[in-house]
Specification:
The chain has 307 residues and is of the alpha/beta class. It has helices at residues 2-8, 21-31, 43-55, 71-78, 96-101, 125-134, 159-162, 193-201, 210-220, 223-246, 267-276, 296-305, and strands spanning 38-41, 61-66, 82-87, 107-113, 140-144, 169-174, 187-191, 258-262, 282-284, 288-292. It is globular. Bound molecules: pyridoxal-5'-phosphate. Pyridoxal-5'-phosphate (PLP) binds next to helix 3.
């Protein structure tokens, strides 16, 4: 990937392919989604920004679960819309019934995140289908699947299977997480042709660099490397979660590349304690900490450092 990206820099005096046609073709081949259902952007957050801008302005409402991805309230507020956060259930899942009930006449957009960052829980396919049936057709539902490649649960939703039957569903995927290309800023949306066309039309021109396009094409050509890397992380994730549970920790089933510990008022203390042991974790206010899975040695150090 690095070689492909570096080689592309030889042409840094030229613009990238504005329609990103080779990259789109590679994504279409890898996902099975026809090209007219696809749009690429500067990270999935870039696409999310386009979606919010196109759908929700002053006085409009955007419903999302909380706690979830930190970018959601920011992107909503930057566009002048009103954030409607809906609390997660006790077991750290989206409360889809409460989210459906939170949809009002001003709601333009609903954001679902599966696996949810930072709790790692997934939505089932059945629950998302039921939710989509309850949402008005003129409300767009975004399903953010930034960690899709780490999911092993056969009941979990796979947005790509639902797009064809749901014209108001837009699935977001990224090359930032499992593919390890966060610095290059590439993500893609899979949606009905009208939604995908609107996203292509409103994208920042030449937003996805030639180096990013080359790295994505090179990455998609070696799926076995991705499978190996992700498989190793998934095995370690499940080992760490199992070890923590045996020691009495409550760990929601992890489906991404991290585990979530709800620590409440102990959050800051435990994060500081781990930092003192040379382990960097992500504390979230008074909610809990997200621990990203590292190599086996780092994970062992984590297990040794936790009470
Ligand atoms: C990391 C992340 C993203 C995206 O990132 P990009 O780098 O902008 O593609 C989107 N959603 C969630 C839930 C994430 O964790």
């Amino acid at each position: 990937m690095l070689a492909a990206a570096t080689a592309a820099l030889a042409d840094l005096n030229t613009y990238p392919d504005a329609s990103a046609s080779r990259m789109l073709a590679a994504i279409a081949a890898a996902t099975g989604a026809p090209e007219e259902h696809l749009a690429t952007g500067t990270g999935s957050v870039g696409l999310l920004q386009q979606i919010v801008q196109a759908t929700a302005g002053e006085g409009d409402e955007v419903v999302f679960a909380w706690r979830s991805f930190e970018a959601y309230p920011i992107v909503v507020q930057v566009n002048g819309a009103r954030a409607v956060p809906v609390a997660l259930t006790q077991d750290e899942h989206h409360d889809l019934d409460a989210m459906a009930a939170a949809i009002g006449p001003r709601t333009r957009l609903v954001l679902l995140c599966s696996p949810n960052n930072p709790t790692g829980t997934v939505l089932s396919r059945e629950s998302v289908e039921k939710f989509l049936a309850a949402v008005p057709q003129d409300v767009l539902v975004v399903l953010d699947e930034a960690y899709a490649e780490f999911v092993r649960d056969p009941e979990a939703v796979d947005g790509l299977d639902l797009v064809a039957a749901h014209p108001n569903l837009c699935v977001l995927r990224t090359f930032s997480k499992a593919y390890g290309l966060a610095g290059l800023r590439v993500g893609y949306a899979v949606a009905a042709p009208e939604v995908a066309a609107a996203l292509r039309a409103t994208a920042v021109p030449f937003g996805v660099s030639a180096a990013a396009q080359a790295a994505v094409i090179a990455s998609l050509a070696v799926p076995e490397l991705l499978a190996e890397r992700v498989g190793a992380i998934v095995a370690e994730r499940d080992r760490v979660a199992g070890a923590l549970r045996r020691r009495g920790w409550t760990v929601p089933d992890p489906h991404a590349n991290f585990v979530w510990l709800r620590l409440g008022t102990r959050t800051a203390d435990v994060a500081t304690q781990l930092e003192a042991a040379g382990l960097l974790v992500r504390p979230y206010g008074g909610d809990g900490i997200r621990i990203t899975i590292g190599d086996p040695a780092a994970n062992d150090r984590l297990l040794a450092a936790l009470p």
